[in-house]
Structure formats: C-alpha cells, structure tokens
Design a protein that fits this description.
This protein has about 450 residues and is of the alpha/beta class. The chain has a domain of about 290 residues: 3-Layer(aba) Sandwich (Rossmann fold), CATH 3.40.50. About 35% of the residues lie in helices and about 20% in strands. It contains 16 helices and 15 strands. Strands 1, 2, 3, 6, 7, 9, 10, 12, 13, 14 and 15 form an 11-stranded mixed β-sheet that branches. A two-stranded antiparallel sheet has the order 4-5. A two-stranded parallel sheet has the order 8-11. Strand 13 and strand 14 form a beta hairpin. Helix 4 runs parallel beside helix 13 and helix 13 packs across helix 14.
Length: about 450
C-alpha cells in the first residue's frame, strides 16, 4: 500500500475544516428573492435548532447585511410581538426591512434599517411563521421558554456567522417584545458572566408592554382625549371596569357583567371602523397589523380580514419564495402573519418587565423606549409614566429635558433622556408599528439610538 504523506493529510484536514466553517452560512445564503430588485448586500435565511438533542424545535431567521461596509456596522436583532406574530412578515417585509411586496414583485424600502446596520429578523417562538416544533409537548410556550430558546438561537447563530460574534449588538422590537427583549437581554448578561459571548450595547422597545396595568389603563385617557369616547363612558371605563381588569377576566374566562357592559359601550363608541393601532389611519389595514393578539383580545378577529388582499401573506406563501428563503411549512398548511397553532401562556402578560429593564440600565445597558403617538393599544402616556417612574427609582437625573426633535425640517416627535442611559421618545404621526407608518422618522430615531446620540434638536 502506498504511503500517504502526513502533509497531505494535514492539507485535507485544513481544507475540510475551512469548507465546513464556510458552508455553515453559505448554505443559508439567498441567491435572489423572486421579484427582487438588484442590490449590493447579501441576504441569508434558514433554521437554527434550539432544543438539545432531537432537533425537534427550530427557529427561522432572515438576515440582511448592511448596504455599505457591513464589516464596520453593528448587528441588530429585531423581534415582533403578539405573542405569536412574525418578525419576517411584520418587521422585515412591512416595517424596516429592505423590501416590501407589491403584487408579484418586491420594491426597495428607501428607509430600510440595513442602511445603518446588519439586521437579523427572528420568527419566535417555535410555531410562529416558518419556525416549528414537531414535539407536541412543546406546543405550549411561555416567556421563560421563549427567552431561553432565543438565547440558544443567538449562540448557535454565531456558529454560522462567527464574524459577528464580537460585533456590537443591539436588540430592538415592539409590542409584546417588551417582554421578549428584556428577558432575553437579562439571560445574555447572565451568560456573559460565565463566558463573554454577547457584546450587548443597547435595547430599543417600541410601544412595548412593560407593566400591563399601567400600559392598558392609559387607553381610557387616550380614547377620551382623542374624542373616541364620551365623558360618561370615560368615567365608567376608569371607575367601574378598567381595561387591565377586563383583559384579566377575559383570559380567565370570567368576564363580569359589569366589564362586559363597559366594554360594550367602549367598543360601540370607538367604532370598529377606527384602527386602534393608529387612530388617524383609515381602516383598510393588512393583517400584518394584528400582532397585538394578547393585548387586544376583543378586536383581533375584526382586524385580520379587514382587507381583501394581503401582499405579504400572498408573497410568503409562494412556493418559489419559500424555496428561495430555504423555508418549509411544518405542522401548518400555510404561512401566517400571526400563528394559529401557538398555545401561549397568555397570563404571562401580567408579569411586569419594567423591573428587568431597570436591571439592564443598572448593568450599564442603554435603553430606549419609543412610542408612536397615534397608537391607542399601548399609548405613549403609559410608557412615559413607566420610564419616568423607573428613572426616579434608579436615581437618574434628567440629562436631556423634555423637548421636540426633528426629522428634516419637521417635528419628528418629543424626547427626554435620564442619566444619558435611559431614554423616552415619541414619533409624531406614528402607529403601533412605527417603521411602517413613519419610516423616515423611525430611521432618524434608529441612527441616533445606534450612535448613542440625542435626537436632533435642530432643522437639518
């Protein structure tokens, strides 16, 4: 038998090692999405398994590198809420991603957040969008499981993309991500104390659920101040049965006759023909804006089928699109914006996360809470109250007094900063989904957040 030279063995080993490392992300690289315009940045999508051995639970991601010089740009993780709604369909294809579906094609979003960062969209928890679990015992999900799965996802995603492991990392999202993000960030900090993996530089929470009683009960004042309900209905909505009590009873299947009567009046006066997620917007809104399933239990069924066509749903259910995305349907017949199979412990909503936000600030992690000011689902007044209260508890002094900020030559909203680490901002004219309704203003906000700078206080 001819003798094999040791150098040959070494070369074979090295080449196979390099091939294996490269192929981890190369296998997920998107050649081109159907109908996509030509772009100069790379896209990736695929699965990361998050259970230990059986590979029965996998989360789907979509990753777009920055348009220019991605090696110098930070990594941003985006999470949508629900719980049970898709960061792919809502965040990527309707809010701040590089493309938006328009019939059979994709059109470029001029205000995409990947102009400033490498953006990673995660469909979480398992059972949402293309993410799946084949183990029937894990169909019931909760905040704790979701946070743990998201942590495992990120650790394993870095194995696919090792060049991003030490990159500055920011986590952003909206709605029920007010639970997902602080819980994930808390686990990341704990994990870092054992082994430094995450270079977490900040979190941004859009119209978030942080303390459900404060958040929900600010709805009555918002309705009344915007002329959506009468004085008498405002009085009973704040004394007889407030919204947090109604939601609590609703999810315990024990709605009292008092709450039923109050909510009947509120629903009648606010009208189902007004979009509660943007009270100034006309009602023909795509089903992608039904992500507040838990926080508006009485309104979801009315919102999902408002319009006859949903560009995003149609696009992501095309077989050629699913093939290009390396996606597959597991346990469902079609891709949905919000999961119809996810069984989530909805009473997790009653567990406040504002204290977790405080612990992140104490760890030196900058936090931005921002509010679209036309959203009545999680109104700005509740979020502002919570941020102000947190600043007082942490002993943070105001470092940027409450003032307007500008986008171009228009007022973009209002802002206040505490201790140069905890910030609150409103986005003028924006809905629950800020990047959808005010894309240019949301991009100004995003740039300032990444750079750690106050929002512009002068015309530009």
């Amino acid at each position: 038998m001819p003798m094999i030279h040791p150098l040959f063995i070494l070369l074979v080993f090295l080449s196979s090692s390099v091939k294996t490392e490269c192929s981890l992300s190369d296998a997920d690289k998107i050649t081109q999405l159907p109908g996509q315009p030509q772009v100069g940045f790379q896209q990736f999508s695929g699965y990361v398994t998050v259970d230990n051995n059986k590979k029965e639970r996998a989360l789907f991601y979509y990753f777009v590198e920055a348009e220019i010089d991605p090696a110098s740009k930070p990594l941003v993780l985006w999470l949508n809420g629900g719980p049970g709604c898709s960061s792919l369909g809502v965040g990527a294809f309707s809010e701040n991603g590089p493309f938006r579906p328009n019939g059979d094609i994709l059109v470029k979003n001029d205000y995409s957040w990947n102009s400033e960062a490498n953006v990673l969209y995660l469909e979480t928890p398992a059972g949402v969008g293309f993410s799946y679990s084949t183990d029937s015992s894990t169909t019931t999900m909760n905040d704790e499981i979701t946070a743990r799965d998201n942590l495992v996802f990120l650790k394993r995603w870095f194995l696919k993309f090792p060049q991003y492991r030490q990159r500055e990392l920011f986590i952003t999202g909206e709605s029920y991500a007010g639970h997902y993000i602080p819980q994930l960030a808390h686990l990341m900090i704990q994990s870092n104390k054992k082994q430094k993996i995450f270079n977490l530089k900040g979190i941004a929470l859009g119209n978030p659920v942080l303390e459900y009683a404060t958040d929900f009960n600010s709805r009555a004042e918002f309705f009344w101040s915007h002329g959506l309900i009468s004085d008498s209905t405002y009085n009973i909505f704040t004394s007889v049965c407030n919204y947090s009590r109604y939601v609590s009873e609703y999810y315990r299947d024990s709605v009292s006759s008092l709450c039923s009567r109050v909510m009947g009046e509120v629903t009648k006066e606010t009208s189902r023909f007004v979009d509660k997620y943007d009270v100034t917007l006309d009602v023909c809104i795509s089903s992608v804006f039904a992500q507040s399933k838990v926080i508006s239990p009485q309104q979801v069924s009315r919102r999902i089928d408002v319009c006859l066509e949903d560009e995003t749903v149609n696009y992501l259910n095309r077989k050629d699109v699913q093939k290009a995305l390396h996606a597959r349907l597991v346990g469902v017949r079609k891709w949905d914006v919000c999961s119809s199979i996810l069984d989530y412990e909805v009473l997790n909503i009653e567990i406040p996360t504002i204290s977790l936000v405080g612990s992140l600030v104490e760890e030196g992690i900058p936090v931005l809470v921002y509010s679209g000011d036309q959203d009545s689902v999680i109104p700005l007044t509740g979020s502002r109250t919570l941020v102000c209260g947190l600043a007082k508890r942490l002993g943070l002094n105001t470092t940027v007094p409450y003032r307007v900020w500008f986008q171009g030559q228009q007022v973009g909203g209002w802002t206040q900063v505490y201790g140069n680490i905890l910030s609150f901002a409103t986005i003028r004219g924006a809905s629950h989904e800020v990047p959808f309704s005010q894309p240019e203003r949301s991009l100004v906000l995003f740039k300032a957040f990444l750079k750690g700078r106050p929002l512009p206080e002068m015309f530009s």
